[in-house]
Amino acid sequence: MAVLVTRPYPDSESTAAVLRARGLEPLLAPVLRFEAVPLPAGFDADAAAVLVTSANALRAVEPQLKGHALSKLPLFAVGEHSATAARRAGFEKVFSADGDGAALRDLVLGHIRAKRVKAGPLLHLSGETIAHDLAAELGAHGIEVTSRIVYRMVAMDRLPEAVRTAFAAGQIEAVLHYSARSAAAFLQAARADGIEISALAVAQCCISAAVARVLREAGAARVMVAGAPNETALLSALERSA
């Protein structure tokens, strides 16, 4: 079974390894390219804790964290993938919501109400495009959040030639989608390549309902949604699609 992985490098490589271990054939088509945005000096002057909704945020700031006071602050991560990236980047106090943006909001609120976080604004390390406005939701509870863009994801114009050929030959049986942004980029590239019909004819396995909505609105009929917003659940959806 050939499976198309659309997530950006280097996460695409780890997913490919998992698929191979399951006896599947991965094809890689990162439809978004990562670009780090350097942080200015003094950006963490008043922060009481750090929030991250993507492992890419840690990937962006990790080169600047060596010996930096920021890594001593508590960090709240949306899921275990980003929590693992935070620990790898040097953060010592990491808390995982193991869910989505709403779960992260509730985790932060719980810690603040229990006074397990010192008083002060929270620092949200984010991408240029955000799917969940964490700052606004926490702000509604009287919590100040400073959002700092530390990376952007740039959409690729076309799919790799090997992927276009595989779609034309009917060799790809499923596509894995990890975000609404990457799903939209996949569709845009497929249209530019003239293979949208073939690309949407196969099973579309989505990490959340929001991602699935993008594919359904484009006309995909076989859309599978993960039971939880993590790769393990997404791969279970892939198994159901087979």
What characteristics describe this protein?
single chain; 242 residues; alpha/beta; 6-stranded mixed sheet; 5-stranded parallel sheet; 39% helix
Task: Summarize the entry for a quick read.
This protein has 242 residues and is α/β, with parallel strands linked by helices. The protein has helices spanning 11-21, 55-61, 80-89, 101-113, 134-139, 161-168, 180-193, 196-201, 209-217, 231-241, and strands spanning 2-5, 25-28, 32-36, 49-52, 74-77, 93-96, 122-127, 145-155, 172-177, 203-206, 223-225.
Mean of all residue-level pLDDT scores: 93
Contiguous uncertain segments of 5+ residues: none
Structural class label: alpha/beta
> What does the largest sheet look like?
6 strands, mixed
Distance between the termini: 9 Å
Kindly provide the radius of gyration, computed on alpha-carbon positions and rounded to a whole number of angstroms.
19 Å
Helix content, binned percent: 25-40%
Q: Return the string of H and E elements.
A: EHEEEHEHEHEHEHEHHEHEH
**CA-based shape:** elongated
| Individual helix count | 10
Q: Please list the strands of the largest sheet in the order they lie side by side.
A: 3-8-7-4-5-6
Tell me the fraction of residues in β-strands, as a range.
Answer: 15-25%
Q: What's the β-strand tally?
A: 11
Can you give a write-up of this model?
A six-stranded mixed β-sheet has the order 3-8-7-4-5-6, with helices on both faces. Strands 2-1-9-10-11 form a five-stranded parallel β-sheet, sandwiched between helices. It is elongated and about 60 Å long. With 242 residues, the chain is an alpha/beta fold. β5, α3 and β6 form a beta-alpha-beta unit. α2 runs parallel beside α3 and α7 packs parallel to α9. It has ten helices and eleven strands.
